[in-house]
Design a protein that fits this description.
- This protein has 10 helices and no strands.
- It is mainly alpha-helical.
- Helix 1 packs antiparallel against helix 3, helix 1 runs antiparallel to helix 5 and helix 6 runs antiparallel to helix 10.
- About 15% of the residues are buried.
- The model has no long low-confidence stretch (mean pLDDT about 90).
- It folds into 2 domains: about 110 residues, no CATH class; about 120 residues, no CATH class.
Length: about 240
């Protein structure tokens, strides 16, 4: 990756996540375009670009990114509500990084190499990882549906859809561990999950629930290992 792009990204990360207190964020959400913290935040981003480059010759790039940052943050402040706050956070960051790449390309003639998309290996990895997310969750739900304990009320302390997302994360991690030849990490992941699950199952005193969790865990791990091993056969 080009050194100029790395420095621009570094300046953004420091400015947005290290030098922006929560009080500033709340001030922008409340006062919107009248918030002084909004303009101070943008000024800090501009100064950070000068600092990471250790030069004032980047003033055009710094001011351009500062202006775009102001426009993006102003739009977010104007349109953000409690309902869309989470999605706007991700949209905001995607647009920020896109603007950084645009300025980098404009002033430093940078270009991102996407030739890896022409390789079979990349598509095998993408397909394998995607299969282990929602498709595998649906497949597992169908397979183990007949074993779901009917006498277990849903715990009020359980996060919504937490089990599904935990399963997706563990399968993707297993997939990456095996592709990078770190089989020992798979055992560590299984051991860590067993430790965290042990207390819940011990307190439940329910053999059916224990067996259900065990079937789900082994099936999830088994599918992830199988897909990873199959993917390795097609990666040259």
């Amino acid at each position: 990756m080009d050194i100029y792009l790395i420095k621009l990204i570094l300046a953004h990360l420091i400015g947005d996540f290290f030098l922006q207190p929560n009080s500033w964020v709340k001030d922008k959400e409340t006062k919107k375009l009248k918030s002084g913290k909004l303009y101070l935040h943008v000024a800090i981003h501009i100064v950070l670009i000068f600092i990471v480059f250790l030069s004032f010759d980047v003033w055009r790039a710094a001011l351009s990114i500062g202006l775009l940052h102001l426009i993006i943050d102003a739009c977010k402040a104007l349109f953000q509500t409690k309902k869309n706050a989470r999605i706007l956070f991700f949209v905001d960051q995607v647009v920020h990084f896109s603007s950084i790449v645009f300025i980098w390309h404009l002033f430093y003639k940078g270009s991102i190499d996407i030739s890896f998309l022409n390789h079979t290996n990349s598509w095998v990895i993408i397909a394998g990882a995607l299969f282990l997310t929602m498709p595998t969750s649906i497949l597992m739900r169908v397979i183990i549906a007949k074993w779901i304990p009917t006498n277990q009320p849903q715990s009020p302390q359980s996060l919504q859809s937490a089990g599904k997302y935990i399963g997706i994360l563990e399968r993707v991690l297993i997939f990456l561990f095996i592709l990078t030849n770190h089989f020992e990490a798979v055992g560590f992941l299984l051991g860590a999950k067993s430790i965290f699950r042990f207390g819940d199952l011990k307190d439940a005193h329910d053999i059916k629930l224990t067996e259900y969790v065990l079937i789900g865990t082994l099936l999830s791990f088994g599918i992830a290992i199988g897909i990873a091993m199959l993917s390795l056969q097609y990666i040259s």
